[in-house]
Amino acid sequence: MQRRLLEVLQCPTCAYAPLQLVTDDLFAEVEQGTLHCEHCGRQTAIREGIVDALGDAPVALTGAQLTNYLSPAAWGYERLWRWQSLSLLTGEHFPLRRELRLVQALLEPERGGVLIDVACSAALYARSWSASTPPDTLLIGVDHSWAMLREARRRSFEAPRPISLVRAAAQALPFQAASATGVGMGGSLNEIGDADGALREIRRLLAPDGRFVSMNLLQASSGRGRALQRVLAEGGVAFPTLETFNQQLERAGLQRWAQWRWGVVAITATVAGD
Ligand SMILES: C[S@@+](CC[C@H](N)C(=O)[O-])C[C@H]1O[C@@H](n2cnc3c(N)ncnc32)[C@H](O)[C@@H]1O
Ligand SMILES: [Zn+2]
Question: What pLDDT digit, counting tens, does each position of 64-87 carry?
Answer without folding.
Answer: 888 888 888 888 888 888 888 888
